Q: What sequence folds into this?
């Protein structure tokens, strides 16, 4: 009788364990080789919009399924816009110009902030009627006096398109879709490296975190290993207050936050690039006669050539540039949800500034090209290659 050699039994648990080990090693290798970028800034400064732009420019954009999922969010944004406008008309003592629209106003207010359970044609008819009303438009023009999403006009102007049953959001629609970031988001993409900088392809990992005060306590989780900070400033926020604190000016809050980031010892090895964002809205506000001088008295002493818009944007840049030059005031730093810095940095470093409009893909493409060079140079210098 022939005896067959004993075959080693297949151990599925052992195989799975080794497979997990291989995947972890691959992840660690990718993590170590990738340049890690962190988006920071106050709420609604444009961080998530930049993350979306990286998907459009360096990944493959948005799938049909993802676009379909955005429909409800965009319709919700549209409702938020019209609801906040008509809700604040009485506060600002603004009346509807067409008495026939009172029924539409009551209809929207009765639905409430959460929006309708079903976006019917009747609902959209009420929104259309209200958006055509001169009183509603007047209240919209005073939106800096209450909380309104930046994309309100954009979506309300496109109400006929958004109301269609087969509506499919465009890239521009998705870029303007507002969703509060309450978790850490990450995107991975690869960019070609110029031959002058050794060529090849460089992998990037970009992280986005919530900017509202209550979300900042999570920031420390993603500080380790960050190569560059993209700090976003909503320049158009100079005449607005925070959603979470109506007594605090948004731009002044951004300055306080930038001071924390600049002096944080946890970010001492990271290059810092400031995106002076929402230039399109800033320019529109200035054209409407609004002045940053009402909120920052030092603007009246600011000496700069150019028109009012140019002078304003250069003044805002100077506010942040000054933060990089002055020594931090010695004060007790509290470990609260609003502050995250507990130890201070002392090493001198450079800060780069760019004027941006995050919803403009061409603008972001051009800026990223410049920023890409800065980040690569900083990274190669740090590892002694360049």
A:
């Amino acid at each position: 009788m022939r005896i067959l050699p004993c075959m080693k039994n297949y151990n599925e648990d052992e195989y799975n364990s080794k497979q997990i080990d291989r995947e972890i090693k691959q992840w660690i290798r990718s993590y170590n080789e990738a340049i890690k970028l962190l988006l920071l800034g106050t709420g609604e400064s444009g961080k998530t919009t930049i993350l979306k732009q990286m998907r459009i420019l360096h990944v493959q954009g948005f799938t049909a399924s993802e676009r379909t999922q955005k429909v409800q969010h965009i319709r919700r944004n549209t409702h938020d816009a019209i609801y906040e406008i008509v809700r604040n008309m009485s506060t600002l003592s603004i009346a509807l110009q067409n008495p026939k629209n009172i029924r539409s106003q009551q209809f929207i207010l009765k639905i409430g902030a959460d929006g309708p359970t079903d976006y019917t044609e009747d609902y959209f008819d009420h929104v259309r009627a209200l958006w055509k009303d001169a009183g509603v438009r007047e209240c919209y023009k005073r939106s800096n006096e209450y909380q309104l999403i930046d994309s309100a006009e954009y979506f309300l102007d496109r109400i006929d398109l958004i109301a269609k049953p087969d509506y499919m959001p465009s890239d521009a629609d998705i870029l303007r879709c507002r969703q509060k970031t309450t978790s850490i988001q990450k995107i991975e993409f690869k960019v070609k490296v110029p031959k002058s900088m050794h060529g090849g392809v460089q992998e990037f990992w970009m992280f986005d975190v919530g900017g509202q005060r209550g979300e900042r306590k999570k920031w420390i989780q993603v500080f380790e290993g960050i190569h560059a900070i993209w700090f976003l400033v909503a320049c158009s926020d100079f005449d607005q207050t925070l959603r979470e604190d109506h007594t605090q000016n948004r731009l002044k809050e951004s300055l306080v936050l930038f001071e924390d980031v600049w002096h944080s010892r946890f970010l001492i090895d990271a290059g810092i690039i400031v995106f002076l964002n929402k230039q399109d809205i800033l320019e529109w506000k200035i054209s409407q006669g609004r002045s940053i001088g009402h909120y920052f008295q030092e603007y009246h002493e600011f000496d700069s050539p150019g028109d009012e818009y140019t002078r304003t944007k250069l003044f805002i840049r100077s506010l942040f540039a000054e933060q990089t030059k002055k020594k931090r005031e010695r004060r007790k730093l509290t470990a609260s949800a609003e502050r995250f810095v507990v130890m201070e940095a002392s090493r001198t470093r450079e800060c780069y500034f760019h004027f941006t409009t995050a919803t403009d893909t061409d603008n972001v493409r051009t800026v990223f090209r410049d920023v890409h060079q800065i980040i690569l140079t900083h990274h190669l210098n740090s590892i002694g290659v360049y």
User: Anything to note?
Assistant: The first strand starts at residue 35 and ends at 41.
